[in-house]
Amino acid sequence: MTPAMAATRTHDRLSALFDERARLVAEATTDTTPVTALVLLRALDVVDVVQGARAFAAGLTEAEGRTWLRSWTRTRFLFGNPANLPERTPARAVAPGGTAAWLGTCPKDHLPGVGRLLKPLTGALPRLPDTLDVPGSGAGPVRELLLATRDVTLVQYLVHLHHTIAEATLLGRLGTTEPLRLTHLPDLDADRAHGDPGYARVHYAAENTPELRLYTSLAP
After folding, report:
1. CB-based burial of residue 44 (10 Å sphere; 0-12 exposed, 13-18 middle, 19+ buried)?
2. By C-alpha distance, which of 186, 188, 191, 196 is closest to 1?
3. How does residue 10 score in pLDDT terms, banded at 50, 70 and 90?
4. How far apart are CA 116 and CA 218, in angstroms?
5. What are phi and psi of 121, to 5 degrees?
6. Interval 158-186 mean pLDDT
7. Read out DSSP for 141-167?
8. Which residues contact 33 (CB under 8 A, 6 or more apart)?
9. Residue 130 in contact with residue 45, Cβ under 8 Å?
10. How far apart are CA 102 and CA 187, in angstroms?
11. Which of 36, 133, 198, 203 has the fewest CB atoms within 10 Å, i.e. is most exposed?
């Protein structure tokens, strides 16, 4: 196979995965009300983020989950200490280690006070372990989640991870108690990643470019 043929095959595969997500979003519900989830983080604990995201997604009502999915599981990440949330704004889910909390879902233009007062998360992605194990009590083998990290900021990493976990949970493709192993790689090869992924996150490789990139791949 020539390099041009291989590039075309990769593009076609990424386009198919990209289009599948658009289809799933469009079919989620006829309710097009834009909603957002808020995530407060006082420290970066990737395992906490995964466990909390699963708990949050699983705790939504069916209608809430479908509307959030139709909103492309829009999420804002904010600097904040979950322990300081006011009683009038309780968290829907708190990570086991207490490093993150989830609020919402909220109408995009009517966020709670903390959404207007706290600063958006910023910064570079710190060096992450090659692998991270997320404990679970479910039966069966540990499922692998591959994540690309080259030229990815902290917020971009969290967006790709959070979309994958939340959407896979909402769609019934990831159980809330399944053990996971996160594997960090500079890049994911669409032809060498999971042949038929349980879920995958494909997005643009950079702003103002039509080139697609595989950011996450969940084992079948």
Report:
1. middle
2. 191
3. confident
4. 34
5. -65, 140
6. 96
7. PPEEEEEE-TT--HHHHHHHHHHHHHH
8. 67, 71, 107
9. no
10. 29
11. 133
Question: Per the structure block, which two tokens stand in for 39?
Answer: 């995530």
* d(C-alpha 171, C-alpha 69), whole Å: 9
Tokens found for residue 121:
């998360």
Report how far apart, in Å, the C-alpha atoms of 64 and of each of 46, 87, 91, 105, 139 are. Answer: 25, 22, 15, 7, 28
On whether the CB atoms of residues 28 and 60 are closer than 8 A, the answer is no
Is 90 exposed, middle or buried (CB count within 10 Å of its CB: 0-12, 13-18, 19+)? exposed
* Amino acid of residue 78: L
Q: Which amino acid is at 201?
A: R
Structure tokens belonging to residue 197 = 């992924």
Say if CB 123 and CB 77 are below 8 A apart.
no
Structure tokens at 41: 């983080």
Task: Judge if pTM exceeds 0.85.
Answer: yes
- Residue 4: φ, ψ to 5°: -65, -40
Where are the chain's structural domains? 3-218
Q: Which of 20-34, 105-119, 151-165 has the lowest mean pLDDT?
A: 105-119
In tens, the pLDDT along 78-121 reads 999 999 998 888 999 999 999 999 998 998 877 777 777 789 99
Q: State the pLDDT at residue 192.
A: 64
Task: Calculate the average pLDDT of the chain.
Answer: 91
SS3 77: strand
Please tell me the distance from the alpha carbon of residue 44 to that of residue 169, in angstroms, as a whole number: 21
